């Protein structure tokens, strides 16, 4: 696997030194998830690719990795969609616009969009996996002429947990997007499709050699989505997926994210499926 530059921001800086950034907007997405708009000092661009992540630090609490949810085409600030699960995310949930947070990054091997240029882009996002995939979706939407079809398959446990409802409604109406959604269990009033995300895949008309898929979701989803895509005949080399692994340093030094020879924080989190298949055999 090709070793990526560890730090691909606009200018080289100390890898371990967080830069103090400002939260400029806080938007509650659901009871658990919040979207933060963050500005670096002087409005400096983060300089990220879709699929990359930053390390967020809160004074006296600690540091945690979060995917960048906004597209690099949307300039001046960036967005993080955070699920409240524990100590750091609980404290962050109380933050209001004006609060400072430490940012290191962008880190990781994001999506090489040049491999998607001219192709039909199939996004498969489960649950909070839509947070990083939204960066790629908006990248394609902002540079629409450079790509073929944009097919979005989104699955969630329940309709009450669907993220970014305004954007979902816009994609549904947008003739440039083929948007499909399903929920495991619909609440009363849900008139959409129910069933797991793989139920969306058999019905898709795909131009297989010209389609590139990007998957992000809970670990259990990957195996079944990959099986379904293979069943449709999509070549493995056309499939990319974002792996989440426990991380500390984010820059290939501590080994927390290591799987055999690969450091997910550096070589991933986005991998081409044949590289993951090799890893699984080796484990
Ligand atoms: C590359 C990458 C990108 C990520 N992007 C996002 C994102 O966009 N939005 C988001 O909400 N979260 C994301 N995460 C997960 C996020 O880093 C964790 O939720 C966060 O570290 C939890 O910190 P905490 O102090 O609130 O929870 P803790 O108190 O540390 O843990 C609370 C609970 O969450 C579990 N947990 C903690 N970290 C992880 C993890 N990495 N994977 C699975 N379970 C975990 C713990 O086992 C515990 O049960 C990402 C993780 C990685 C590695
Ligand atoms: S998180 Fe430290 S090596 Fe990857």
In short:
It contains six helices and 15 strands.
Describe this protein's structure.
The chain has 283 residues and is an alpha/beta fold. It has two domains: 19-107, Beta Barrel (Elongation Factor Tu (Ef-tu), domain 3), CATH 2.40.30.10; 113-242, Nucleotide-binding domain of ferredoxin-NADP reductase (FNR) module (Rossmann fold), CATH 3.40.50. The chain has helices spanning 87-93, 130-142, 165-173, 219-232, 264-267, 273-282, and strands at residues 19-28, 33-39, 53-58, 62-67, 78-83, 100-107, 120-126, 150-158, 178-185, 193-194, 211-216, 239-242, 258-259, 262-263, 270-272. It has a seven-stranded mixed beta sheet with strand order 10-9-8-7-11-12-15, with helices on both faces. The longest helix has 14 residues, at 219-232. The radius of gyration is 18 Å and the shape is globular. It starts with 18 loop residues before the first strand and ends with a helix. Flavin-adenine dinucleotide (FAD) binds at residues 53, 64-67, 81-83, 85-89, 128, 131-132, 244-247, 269. Flavin-adenine dinucleotide is lined by residues 53, 64-67, 81-83, 85-89, 128, 131-132, 244-247, 269.
């Amino acid at each position: 696997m090709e070793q990526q530059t560890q730090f691909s921001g606009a200018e080289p800086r100390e890898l371990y030194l967080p830069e103090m950034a400002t939260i400029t907007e806080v938007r509650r997405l659901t009871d658990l998830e919040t979207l933060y708009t963050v500005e670096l000092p002087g409005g400096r661009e983060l300089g990220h690719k879709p699929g990359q992540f930053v390390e967020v630090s809160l004074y006296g609490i600690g540091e945690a990795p979060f995917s960048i949810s906004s597209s690099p085409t949307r300039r001046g600030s960036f967005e993080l969609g955070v699920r409240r699960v524990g100590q750091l995310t609980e404290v962050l949930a109380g933050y209001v616009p004006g609060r400072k947070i430490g940012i290191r990054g962008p880190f990781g091997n994001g999506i090489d969009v040049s491999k998607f240029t001219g192709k039909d882009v199939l996004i498969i996002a489960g649950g909070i996996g839509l947070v990083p995939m939204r960066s790629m979706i908006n990248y394609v939407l902002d540079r629409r002429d450079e790509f073929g079809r944009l097919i979005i398959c989104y699955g969630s446990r329940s309709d009450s947990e669907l993220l970014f409802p305004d954007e979902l409604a816009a994609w549904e109406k947008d003739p440039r997007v083929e948007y499909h959604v399903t929920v495991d269990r619909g609440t009363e009033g849900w008139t959409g499709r129910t069933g797991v995300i793989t139920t969306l895949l058999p019905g898709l008309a795909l131009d297989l050699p010209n389609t590139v898929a990007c998957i992000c979701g809970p670990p259990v989803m990957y195996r079944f989505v990959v099986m379904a895509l293979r069943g449709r005949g999509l070549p493995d080399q056309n499939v990319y997926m974002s792996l989440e692994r426990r991380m500390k340093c984010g820059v290939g030094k501590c080994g927390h994210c290591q799987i055999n020879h690969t450091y997910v924080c550096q070589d991933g989190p986005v991998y081409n499926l044949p590289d993951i298949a090799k890893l699984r055999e080796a484990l």
